[in-house]
Structures are given as C-alpha cells and as structure tokens.
Sequence to fold (261 residues):
Amino acid sequence: MTEQTPIKQVKIGKKIFWISLATSVLVSLIISALMVKFGAPLLEKMFIKKTEVPNLKGVVLSEAKQILENRGFITVVSGEKYNDEIPAGSVTGQSPIAGLILPEKSKIEIIISKGKEKVSVPVLFSLSKEEATAQLTSLGLSVGDVSSEKSAGVPKGRVISCIPATGTEVEKGTVIDITVSAGAPVKRAVIVKVSVPNLWGKTLPEAQALLDSRGLKLGRISRTTSIDHDFDIILRQKPAAGSSVPKGSSVEVTINAETEE
Fold:
C-alpha cells in the first residue's frame, strides 16, 4: 500500500471539511424550513402557560369573572336558568368542567342562576278552601295560615283575600295565607237617640206635643200638690231635661194637682 503524501492528505481533509460544512448548512436550511412550517405552533404549544380550570359553582358573576381573568381565561356567559339551590346572579354551571388543565386565553362558558322559579299568585277570591289549596299546589305554592272574618258579600267558607295578594310574583314554594268568610255579620239595630225636652211648667197636652215632636212617649203620670205653683202643670220629670235617650223612650211626669194621689 502506498502512503499518501502530506499534500494529498491536506486536500482530502479540506474536501471532507467542505462536504461536512455543506451538509450542515443544507440540514440547517431543511430544519429551518420545517420549523417555519411545523415547529412554531409546536413550540408555542410546548411553552404556552397552562392553568387549571377553577370550580365556579355558586360564585357570583363578578367574582367568577375576576377569578377567570386572574388565571388568564376568557369568560363567556352562555345563558341563565332557574335553580332552587343557587341564588340568583351566581354560577350554576360551567364548561369546560373544573379541574381540567387548559392554555391561557381558553374560553370558559358559564351559566348564571335566575334563582327559584317565580309564579304569579292566582285569583283565589270566592273559591272554597279546598279549591284554593288545589290551585296553589298546582303552581308549586302552599297554603299557610287560614283565618276567617265576617263578610256580607262573600258566602261562608269562601276565600275573601290572600297574602301575598293576587298577581304578586313569588318564588315557588312560597306560603300563601288566606282569609275565608265566616258568613254575613249579624245586623244590629241602629239606635237613634234624642234629647229629652224640658217639660217643667207645661200642661199635659203641651208635654204630649213636645214629646211627640221628639219621637218620645208620655209615660207614668204622678200627682202632687203644691200651693206655690199653678195647678195642672208639670213640676217634675224623669229622665231630666237634656238627657239623651233612645227614640221611643217614655218620660214620666209629675203634675201639680189640687189633691194628691
């Protein structure tokens, strides 16, 4: 085997160097081209910050937005619905669910509670207690206290009024107090009172005329004798003049007679 001269070895070394350099440059160009097309999204995915999705159930909307913002998420309110347990204005559902690890700027959809479903208190007037109870139950309401009072316009046992009043918007489950009629009130006679006239010094016919004008009657007539006064005039009366008595009452008088009874 012939030995290579130093000059040939140098030439071979330079050739290998240039081939290696060209190969390295070519590979670099190829890698760069591939990175431009495929690598940037991959690198972005590799280095983008990821965060755990928080549990927002029961959290009021303003606080939920703040929590998501602090974690780099975007809040999307996707709707509202009634919920018997979660107060109105708080989160009742979310998507994606809590616990998932997601990239920043991911959208988190939340549903806001409208609270308990509301219904309008129905017309209960003139219904029986049983009919009113059935009506309320069908709407998710219930009967509370049942009181009664006299009513001239509503038959006995029928509903007069309710609290809350008819037409009021209330939550399902609300207790409605009702008042039923106890029947018409007993009519009481109207007592008209009049003032008793002054009969002193009047004759019986004069006294009778005065009493008739006031709607009163001449009652028991007693006699006494007094020489200090004229005879046949009234000296005393009962009730006294000015007294207020029911119309139709009797007034007793005592007249001055020549002879006593």
